Amino acid sequence: MSQPALLVLEDGRSFAGTSYGATGSTFGEAVFTTGMTGYQETLTDPSYHRQIVTQTAPHIGNTGINDEDDESQKIWVAGYVVRDPARVPSNWRAKRSLDDQLKGQEIVGISGIDTRALTRHLRERGAMRAGISTEILDPAELLQKVLEQPPMVGADLASEVTTFEPYVVPAEGEKRFTVVALDLGIKTMTPKRMSERGIEVHVMPANTSLDEILAVNPDGIFMSNGPGDPETTEHPTTLLKELLQRGKPYFGICFGNQVFGRALGLGTFKLKYGHRGINQPVLDRATGKVEITAQNHGFAVDAPIDSVVETPYGTAEVSHVSLNDNVVEGLKLTGHDGRVLAFSVQYHPEAAAGPHDSAYLFDRFVELMEGRN
Amino acid sequence: MPRRTDIDSVLVIGSGPIVIGQACEFDYSGTQACRVLREEGFRVVLVNSNPATIMTDPEFADATYVEPITPEYVEKVIEKERPNALLATLGGQTALNAAIALHDNGVLEKYGVELIGASVDAIQRGENRESFKQIVEKLGAETARSVICHTIDDVMGAAEQLGYPLVVRPSFTMGGVGSGMAYDEADLRRIAGAGLHASPTTEVLIEESILGWKEYELEVMRDKADNVVIICSIENVDPMGVHTGDSVTVAPAMTLTDREYQVMRDLAIGIIREVGVDTGGCNIQFAVNPEDGRLIVIEMNPRVSRSSALASKATGFPIAKIAAKVAIGYTLDEIPNDITRQTPASFEPTLDYVVVKVPRFAFEKFPAADARLTTHMKSVGEAMAIGRNYTEALQKALRSLEKPEARFSWAGQPASELEPLLEAIKTPQDGRLRIVMDAIRAGATPEQIFDATKIDPWFVDQLYLIHETALQVAAAPRMTPDVIKLAKRHGFSDLQLAEIRGLTEDVVRGVRQALGIRPVYKTVDTCAAEFKAETPYHYSSYDEETEVAPRDTPAVLILGSGPNRIGQGIEFDYSCVHASMALREAGYCTVMVNCNPETVSTDYDTSDRLYFEPLTCEDVLEIVYAELQAGPVAGVIVQLGGQTPLGLAQRLADAGVPIVGTSPEAIHLAEERGAFGKVLADAKLPAPKHGTAMSAEAAHEVAEEIGFPVLVRPSYVLGGRGMEIVYSSAELTAALDRLSAGSGSWEHPVLIDRFLDDAVEIDVDGLFDGEELFLGGVMEHIEEAGVHSGDSSCALPPITLGNADIENIRKSTEAIARGVGVRGLLNVQYALAGDVLYVLEANPRASRTVPFVSKATATPLAKAAARVMLGASIAALREEGMLPATGDGGTLPPTTPIAVKEAVMPFNRFRTIDGSSVDTVLGPEMKSTGEVMGIDDTFGTAFAKSQAGASQPLPINGKVFVSVANRDKRHMIFPVKRLADLGFQIYATEGTADVLRRNGVEAVTVRKSSQGPGPNGEPTIVQMVQDGELNLIVNTPIGITQGGSPRIDGYEIRSAAVARNIPCITTVQGLAAAVQGIEAQRAGDIGVRSLQDWVPRIRGV
């Protein structure tokens, strides 16, 4: 029979449910994601490191787990909250059930709770620390443990998710460019999208030095998404400043957008409850077109939306904004001649999970390296 | 980009009468469009022949033309109104076809009317199979292998190439008309032959079978800046082979990985771009092979569809409204999402709940029809339910159908034999999921279920989950809170739990409520709670946190009419919506309860609060409770939604719910024969002799005493279900058997009435406040008594009644209203035989004719009724201006135009099991799905318009075939003679021809079908009809038909007429009306006039 489980938030609200996945106790920042598809990609997205992820879609696990859709080597979420887990997976690619996968990777989860009530709570009160346990079923006791956990603000997590050793994702077809991708929590699909465009991607650990990067003689620099507070990104920010100084074309995604902002002298801040979903509308301010994007971020860049910022590397401006709440969703650096030198977006053009509307950004990176823009 | 400033007026075309495949979803979309266009300052001109729609209310357009949607009539409207633009993508296939015709015949160009929403090229690219196929291939995707055919020879060639089974799909038809699955050559010849005929371009597609594949649909929206969003994904539980309108469907898709979903999304976006729908919505269907994921694009609709309505209700994203906005120039990011108010419409809704739609069929009305489900849509309505999981949503949806046999039941022992059940579920049919559950009860394995049905294993497992939950409930030593909560979480009703536990529903409810286990109400918010919702669009779930906001304003709950069915459709939704509008204006908080996704009532804009919930006693009681927690409740309205809420009235009242308007006791007084007889006796009103019986023996006694013919029917039904006219004792025995389904007993008594041959039937809608009667309208039926009032055409004002008759009707109606104790609407049916006005029946509720009467008399009857129910007097409403200051529908001035209502029948949708058409004879059981109105100065013209609106336009010359029953021969002479004088060639069978000749009418004698072709190859009448040689058929039945086994010679003629769509008149009175209509058409140009223009004439100013 099902085993009881308890979820407690740091403000004391608790939800009693049923154990899902592994048993035990787990802690992290409680967030919610609104995607209706793509739980396998979500679970294996390193940006969710140390987070307890609530799926607002009630049925999870319906298509099981397959061997193709993982976005990294493992499940990163600290805990998993769902309403109605599937009892049997059904998909021609499914190899095993999600339940087994969670158990196998010792991910503690909870099911059967009012996930909408939890989501509304997080929306009103903001993302906060939480714990799930199948061992401690007394809310007061579990709350005590939750309050002992470190908050997400100030957390430097890149070092915990980055690759230990550099590796190369070869270009598909004829190799046209070499790019160094700094792994701050990179997803499998990101280098793939580049390699599809003739880019040989050198994925390097977060603590890689400038010399090590330059040694590859890259045509462009890429920084990935990743977990944690961008204010703690001393090393990547310094690195990026050096690389911008050297005129290296740059493309950043998510955390890479925040690092870019900081390198340009802009601030970052924590959003109340973040953007996590695959239905987020973003306006490309240059074209006036809307793209539906995949997003997963709890922090954002603080930049003036209607004016430019002069930086030592050129003129910076906000290129994309969220149509939901005007949060900065992209930055662009142009030189004196108006040429784009570097750019980044807060959302996920690699889109796994999510819509492919923004795949053109990888083409733009290619154009940037070609000097065509 | 703001709205276009280069256009000032827009012509909107509606979808005409409700037919299978095109129902009130287009009233919903059209109403939204009209509302948007007017808000944006356009002059809105509307053409729609359907008076039961909200969109044809005069306040929704500047000029409302209730005129036939044919190129000829729409051209007249264009000529008169000179609109700059035409919006045709919101009125279904009818509007789209009319727009294409007006483009093709040069009218749009001649008057400089721009087609907005989708261009003609885009419509043709999307609907033409070949060009669509090329587009899909260009995008690197596949369509099913297929061949386009224009002749039967082409079709046979294609069959050789592709092999059987094959799918036949005619081009440019709606609801899959004429499509079907052919397993062999005979099938193929029949289906493809009909399909070639049904297609306006004589084109069918012959296609490889992808039977059993998973089926999906995406709703897509695009603006002129090329922003594209996907509104909703829908997955069919019934795999490929069943029309999506007949399938159980789920939103969002349940069994797709993100990769697969994104491939579909990319394709959908590519397709809408390539097809070139640049300002509007469309839906695209896909099939997926469950074995290997091979994806096939099935088709697209370059317009708003039934699925769009479902998707709008399922997500809270109002597709038609947004489609209208992008059509006039806005981009999606400029349009606010009115549920969140802080986010734009350029986003993709995300759901934190599950939506299930189930179809509702009416095979019981067409017993001869083939009830197997195919690619040809047969359902007449649908119910939708929302739950926090699939099991909850599915069980809610099934009980929303109001068919006890549709929901799952664990009463009694499981079936002892599994094999017959497994065999049965191989064939898609109405109620298949119930049979699947019965098979599970009988021990079927999931593999057996999948093999028989190809229903995805995940959905199959959900059925096992429901079954296992039922077993847990059964096995529990006591009804503990945990057990009840578990069952409720999976959608079990109190009634189902009662069955399982051997208790009564009330006991289960009592225990549950005592334990404090009640549903919470969540909100449909388009964003899975990411943003705060401003629109109270609720659904119940047994979850933790409720979202019903407290309020101070007193609430009025309006119970809607549930899924559309024959006898209860859009007309009742009309009354509910009107009540909501009137009471909102009067300062109440209006709360709508309904489960029909097609309707205007379930638009979250219609009422202050919307509960998308089943209309069962349990579900309604819980809503009442939730609203009582939120604030004061002034009352619940049960009178406007038809029989569904009326049937709940007593139980709700017993549970302490305040019912406003006519009390449940008064409702009972009218429904119960004995009690009503006393009301009539007290008022000294004559009724046909009648009696009630609870046994066959008693029924025979009553019938003998009354004298044949008699009308036999069950009590407490709507739409004349099971009603028959019986001419002999033997027929009575057969009729009683049918009523009791062979069991010999009935739940409610059987009513037996003397049937009045040759009487004029009269329908009256009135309003009574306890003091004063407001006679809303008096309608004179064109057919004699015996044809169900919903199926007969009628005229208002009555065309042959004198003032004395009207006064008599007024007095009788008032006496009944007073005697019964009506507060609100009352519908009375009378039969005028000689000088005696018999009362046939009285219904203390809104009737089907309320919208027609309201439009014909320019009086908002349903609005006034709602106010009366809440205590306003008719005098006060007169003063307020809602009702005319003096007079009523019985005192209309002579300048009042004649409005004719004509019923529209679904006969062409059904085939018997051997593939021929079902019979078209009208009788006491209602069969029509919709209605049209023709309005003009004289009866003939109005009648001609009504026939054109019902897609049965009267000919102005040509060949008429006449064959009538003996009792009708006398009455047909004059009208037929008139036709001959007008130059029609008359054809008749022997007997009729003789009578005509003796009366000086030359008639060509034609061979009966039973005589076979003549020695020199003279064709039979059936062959002549099939060959399309005739322009009009007059055939009155000899005796009656029942049980789908026609006993009369005319059946073949009438069914051939249906197949060829030749107007077929089955009553002598109808013939007389037709002659007047034909004369009017021949007299010259028939004009068009908007309802707004008629008002001064109706008011007599």
UniProtKB/TrEMBL annotation, chain A:
<feature type="domain" description="Carbamoyl-phosphate synthase small subunit N-terminal">
    <location>
        <begin position="3"/>
        <end position="133"/>
    </location>
</feature>
<feature type="binding site">
    <location>
        <position position="255"/>
    </location>
    <ligand>
        <name>L-glutamine</name>
    </ligand>
</feature>
<dbReference type="GO" id="GO:0004088">
    <property type="term" value="F:carbamoyl-phosphate synthase (glutamine-hydrolyzing) activity"/>
</dbReference>
<feature type="active site">
    <location>
        <position position="350"/>
    </location>
</feature>
<comment type="function">
    <text>Small subunit of the glutamine-dependent carbamoyl phosphate synthetase (CPSase). CPSase catalyzes the formation of carbamoyl phosphate from the ammonia moiety of glutamine, carbonate, and phosphate donated by ATP, constituting the first step of 2 biosynthetic pathways, one leading to arginine and/or urea and the other to pyrimidine nucleotides. The small subunit (glutamine amidotransferase) binds and cleaves glutamine to supply the large subunit with the substrate ammonia.</text>
</comment>
<dbReference type="GO" id="GO:0004359">
    <property type="term" value="F:glutaminase activity"/>
</dbReference>
<dbReference type="Pfam" id="PF00988">
    <property type="entry name" value="CPSase_sm_chain"/>
</dbReference>
<dbReference type="GO" id="GO:0005524">
    <property type="term" value="F:ATP binding"/>
</dbReference>
<feature type="active site">
    <location>
        <position position="348"/>
    </location>
</feature>
<comment type="subunit">
    <text>Composed of two chains; the small (or glutamine) chain promotes the hydrolysis of glutamine to ammonia, which is used by the large (or ammonia) chain to synthesize carbamoyl phosphate. Tetramer of heterodimers (alpha,beta)4.</text>
</comment>
<feature type="active site" description="Nucleophile">
    <location>
        <position position="254"/>
    </location>
</feature>
<comment type="similarity">
    <text>Belongs to the CarA family.</text>
</comment>
<comment type="pathway">
    <text>Pyrimidine metabolism; UMP biosynthesis via de novo pathway; (S)-dihydroorotate from bicarbonate: step 1/3.</text>
</comment>
<dbReference type="GO" id="GO:0006541">
    <property type="term" value="P:glutamine metabolic process"/>
</dbReference>
<keyword id="KW-0547">Nucleotide-binding</keyword>
<dbReference type="InterPro" id="IPR036480">
    <property type="entry name" value="CarbP_synth_ssu_N_sf"/>
</dbReference>
<keyword id="KW-0028">Amino-acid biosynthesis</keyword>
<feature type="binding site">
    <location>
        <position position="47"/>
    </location>
    <ligand>
        <name>L-glutamine</name>
    </ligand>
</feature>
<feature type="binding site">
    <location>
        <position position="296"/>
    </location>
    <ligand>
        <name>L-glutamine</name>
    </ligand>
</feature>
<keyword id="KW-0067">ATP-binding</keyword>
<dbReference type="InterPro" id="IPR006274">
    <property type="entry name" value="CarbamoylP_synth_ssu"/>
</dbReference>
<comment type="pathway">
    <text>Amino-acid biosynthesis; L-arginine biosynthesis; carbamoyl phosphate from bicarbonate: step 1/1.</text>
</comment>
Automatic annotation (TrEMBL), chain B:
<dbReference type="Pfam" id="PF02142">
    <property type="entry name" value="MGS"/>
</dbReference>
<feature type="binding site">
    <location>
        <position position="301"/>
    </location>
    <ligand>
        <name>Mg(2+) 2</name>
    </ligand>
</feature>
<dbReference type="Pfam" id="PF02786">
    <property type="entry name" value="CPSase_L_D2"/>
</dbReference>
<feature type="binding site">
    <location>
        <position position="756"/>
    </location>
    <ligand>
        <name>ATP 2</name>
    </ligand>
</feature>
<feature type="domain" description="ATP-grasp">
    <location>
        <begin position="133"/>
        <end position="328"/>
    </location>
</feature>
<keyword id="KW-0479">Metal-binding</keyword>
<dbReference type="InterPro" id="IPR011761">
    <property type="entry name" value="ATP-grasp"/>
</dbReference>
<dbReference type="GO" id="GO:0004087">
    <property type="term" value="F:carbamoyl-phosphate synthase (ammonia) activity"/>
</dbReference>
<feature type="binding site">
    <location>
        <position position="299"/>
    </location>
    <ligand>
        <name>ATP 1</name>
    </ligand>
</feature>
<feature type="binding site">
    <location>
        <position position="208"/>
    </location>
    <ligand>
        <name>ATP 1</name>
    </ligand>
</feature>
<feature type="binding site">
    <location>
        <position position="242"/>
    </location>
    <ligand>
        <name>ATP 1</name>
    </ligand>
</feature>
<dbReference type="InterPro" id="IPR011607">
    <property type="entry name" value="MGS-like_dom"/>
</dbReference>
<feature type="binding site">
    <location>
        <position position="129"/>
    </location>
    <ligand>
        <name>ATP 1</name>
    </ligand>
</feature>
<feature type="binding site">
    <location>
        <position position="841"/>
    </location>
    <ligand>
        <name>Mg(2+) 3</name>
    </ligand>
</feature>
<feature type="binding site">
    <location>
        <position position="788"/>
    </location>
    <ligand>
        <name>ATP 2</name>
    </ligand>
</feature>
<feature type="domain" description="ATP-grasp">
    <location>
        <begin position="677"/>
        <end position="870"/>
    </location>
</feature>
<comment type="subunit">
    <text>Composed of two chains; the small (or glutamine) chain promotes the hydrolysis of glutamine to ammonia, which is used by the large (or ammonia) chain to synthesize carbamoyl phosphate. Tetramer of heterodimers (alpha,beta)4.</text>
</comment>
<keyword id="KW-0067">ATP-binding</keyword>
<feature type="binding site">
    <location>
        <position position="301"/>
    </location>
    <ligand>
        <name>Mn(2+) 2</name>
    </ligand>
</feature>
<dbReference type="GO" id="GO:0005524">
    <property type="term" value="F:ATP binding"/>
</dbReference>
<feature type="binding site">
    <location>
        <position position="299"/>
    </location>
    <ligand>
        <name>Mg(2+) 1</name>
    </ligand>
</feature>
<dbReference type="GO" id="GO:0006526">
    <property type="term" value="P:L-arginine biosynthetic process"/>
</dbReference>
